[in-house]
Structure formats: C-alpha cells, structure tokens
Specification:
By secondary structure, the protein is an alpha+beta fold. The protein has three helices and ten strands, in the order ααβββββββαβββ.
Length: 265
C-alpha cells in the first residue's frame, strides 16, 4: 500500500485531507512536513538559548542571611594574666565556658557570658626585715560573668561563610576556689594572705565565625579584660611597709584566646 492510498483511507483529518493526493505531488507533501518540523525545532532551540542566557546572567551572591536569632556557645581558651607589681595575682590560666546570645536587630547581638579560669599564683610572705619572700606556687580558680554587646560586621548574614565581629561589655570576676595550704603551713596571718575576692571586669573582644551549616559554626576569638589586683591589708601597714611603696590595688590586663563552636536556633 502506497502513501497516497493509506492517507486516503484514514478516518483522521489532517491538514492535507482536502487535497487530492493522487494528483498532489508527493515531493511537496514531504517538503511541507520537513518545513514544519524545522520550524518547530528552530523555535525550541531559540527557547533553550534564551533560557540559558537568563541563567548565565544570575550572579550568585557571596552573602547568606542568618535565619535564626538565638545562639549558644561552648569554648576553651588560654589566658595570660597580669599578676601586678607585687606578683601576687594569678598569672596564666586555662578556661572553659559558655555563652548565650540573642540578635536584637540587624548586626547587634546581646550576649551573656560565663567562664571558669583555672590558674596559678605565687605565694609571698612580706615583712619589714626580710621584705618579700616567695614561698611557692598554688592553685587559684575564679570565674568571670559578663554582659556583652556584639556587633556583627557583616550584619545578620555571613560573607563566604564568614562572620567577623567586635564586642564590648562588662561584668564581674570572682574567686571560686583558692588553695591556701602554703600560707597555712607557714603560719601566715590572715590579713597578709592574698584574696582575689570579687571585682568589676571590663571586656573588649573580637572574633570570627565560620559557618559549617545553617545552625552550626566554629569560631575563634580574642578577648582583652581589665580588673584589679588588691594588696593584702597586712602589707599596707607602716610596720610592714614603712616607706608606703606597696600599691593598695592596681589594674591589670588579661589577654585571652578562645576556640569553640556555636549552635543557632
């Protein structure tokens, strides 16, 4: 059966149903079909080309918005502490701690920080005849609790998964546990023993967050603290210090370096 008899006997209506296919040249029929096919192919190709050009014009942004407002942090660090002119305060320390933060708008976050310092200090006996005499080193543990105002330099978003920040604040440093076995063994009077006590502590910090996922980040941070080291009352009497050279107290600097991770929620 040839093409003309097949199309003539079909019940389907085609664009060529009204033609006398026995007299209509087969070459023109084939040409028309090929022409329509080429037009469809051309239109499809143009659509694909336009779509690809539109996709190529979309430039991915290095910024990514942070969808959460709250964060919790755990960290570990090391500190170098000024022990004061008389070398009676804590010197070096290892630190563990945690922090809670809430974003209050754009790049500003309010944080509550609590950390424990495990440090050492030198023990001295002081009298007018022998001056200051070192008896040994002992343990001193103290804590720092502070409130911070943190400014995220990229706003409430990251840049290439990074978020640098600065923070300022203040709080309190207070003694947690002090080993006085050396003083007790030497029979030192209570008023001549060093007591870390509790005092105001200022905070200046800067750090960098690295986003691992939408909720988990790693961070490193440097913190600068200022607080006072007080001189024992027994070291300030005219009998012990007739020249009055011992300071009543003095501001000392603490330099901290932390690493840790945070969870956003």
């Amino acid at each position: 059966m040839n093409l003309c008899s097949l199309m003539k006997s079909s019940t389907l209506r085609t664009p060529y149903s009204g033609l006398n296919l026995q007299t209509y040249p087969k070459e023109k029929i084939i040409y028309s079909i090929v022409k329509v096919t080429l037009r469809v192919f051309l239109i499809a190709s143009i659509c694909c080309l336009v779509s690809n050009v539109a996709k190529a014009q979309v430039i991915p942004s290095p910024y990514k918005f942070v969808d959460t407002r709250h964060s919790g942090r755990l960290f570990y660090g090391q500190a170098t502490i000024g022990s004061g002119q008389l070398d009676i305060g804590p010197r070096t320390a290892s630190i563990i701690g945690g922090r809670y933060g809430i974003n209050v708008g754009s790049g500003l976050t309010i944080e509550i920080n609590a950390s424990r310092y495990n440090s050492t200090r030198s023990v001295y006996d002081f009298n007018a005849s022998e001056g200051r005499k070192k008896l040994g080193d002992t343990q001193l543990n103290f804590g720092v609790v502070d409130l911070r105002f943190r400014l995220n330099l990229t706003g409430h978003r990251t840049w290439r998964s990074l978020q640098p920040y600065l923070a300022v604040g203040g709080g309190a440093a207070l003694s947690l546990a002090a080993d006085q076995s050396i003083e007790e063994a030497a029979g030192m009077q209570q008023e001549k023993r060093y007591d870390f006590g509790s005092q105001f502590a200022s905070v200046i910090a800067g750090g960098l967050d690295f986003e691992l996922s939408q909720r988990i980040t790693l961070f490193t941070e440097g913190v600068f603290n200022l607080w006072k080291v007080g001189t024992p009352a027994g070291w300030l009497t005219t009998e012990t210090d007739p020249l009055g050279s011992n300071p009543k107290d003095e501001w000392v600097a603490t330099k901290n370096l932390f690493v840790g991770f945070s969870y956003r929620f």
